[in-house]
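Weekly sync, protein design subgroup
Attendees: M.S., D.O., the rotation student, P.L. (late)

Item 1: inverse folding check
M.S. brought a backbone from last month's batch and wanted to see whether the design step gives back something sensible before we order anything. D.O. pointed out we never logged the input encoding, so this time it goes straight into the notes. Structure tokens as presented (250 positions):
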């Protein structure tokens, strides 16, 4: 599977002249084949930053670069075909079978029904779903199964980059844990560059190689996931304490 480095160079975003600044001079590099989690309170800019990667948000200043190409000058259709996107509640088309949902990218490329069926079967197997799921509809599946289908669809076109925005936020704790275990193994296997937005500290540390903490549209800390719990950063220590309902050590 192809994969590319993602670079944010002095990225800022304002809602309009005199509007709110949602991102402020963010510079980051996400190495190819790694997983990076974006953490922060609601309104910190996590999802806005994520959406600059697939041009759903256009920076007011600065640039986003994927594999050496500036997103601002890329063909939007080609760009998004090379980026997998997984959201909460999967975003499946309810009137389509699971096979058509998973094969949507292949269908848009003009692939034959036989090729689409073969690819859908392959991707469903990759995310741990049985072949007979292909003929069902989203409403016939559990929440966890729908999220697996959403992930299968995102990976079906062998993306350069995978974006995940709170993908497991609506799931119960047991299903969420199962999905996290499946995803960690899958990401290690396919090696796609992944950006994950989450509020869940434990999820970020379990899935990601690196963690970026955002606050008010700014990066306040960036480090390896293994360094988070021992970090001297005040912002990180407060987040860890809040996640585990403990006091911040002096």
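Designed sequence read out in the meeting:
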């Amino acid at each position: 599977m192809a994969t590319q480095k993602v670079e944010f160079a002095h990225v800022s975003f304002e809602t309009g002249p005199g509007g709110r600044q949602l991102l402020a001079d963010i510079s980051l590099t996400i190495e190819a084949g790694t997983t990076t989690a974006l953490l922060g309170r609601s309104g910190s800019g996590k999802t806005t930053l994520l959406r600059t990667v697939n041009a759903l948000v256009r920076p007011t200043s600065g640039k986003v670069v994927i594999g050496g190409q500036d997103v601002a000058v890329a063909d939007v259709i080609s760009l998004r075909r090379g980026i997998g996107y997984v959201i909460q509640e999967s975003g499946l088309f309810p009137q389509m079978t699971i096979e058509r949902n998973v094969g949507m990218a292949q269908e848009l490329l003009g692939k034959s029904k036989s090729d689409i069926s073969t690819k859908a079967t392959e991707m469903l197997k990759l995310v741990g779903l049985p072949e007979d799921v292909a003929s069902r509809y989203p409403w016939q599946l559990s929440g966890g199964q729908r999220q697996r289908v959403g992930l299968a669809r995102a990976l079906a076109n062998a993306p350069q980059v995978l974006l995940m925005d709170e993908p497991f936020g609506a799931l119960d704790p047991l299903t969420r844990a199962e999905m996290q275990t499946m995803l960690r193994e899958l990401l290690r296997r396919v090696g796609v560059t992944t950006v994950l937005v989450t509020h869940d500290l434990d999820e970020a540390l379990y899935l990601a190689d690196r963690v970026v903490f955002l606050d008010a549209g700014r990066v306040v800390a960036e480090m390896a996931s293994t360094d988070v719990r021992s970090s001297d950063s005040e912002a990180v220590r407060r987040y860890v304490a809040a996640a585990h309902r403990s006091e911040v050590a002096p």
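Discussion: The domain at 1-80+190-250 is CATH 3.40.50.300 (Rossmann fold). The radius of gyration is 18 Å.
Action: P.L. to compare against the previous round before Friday.
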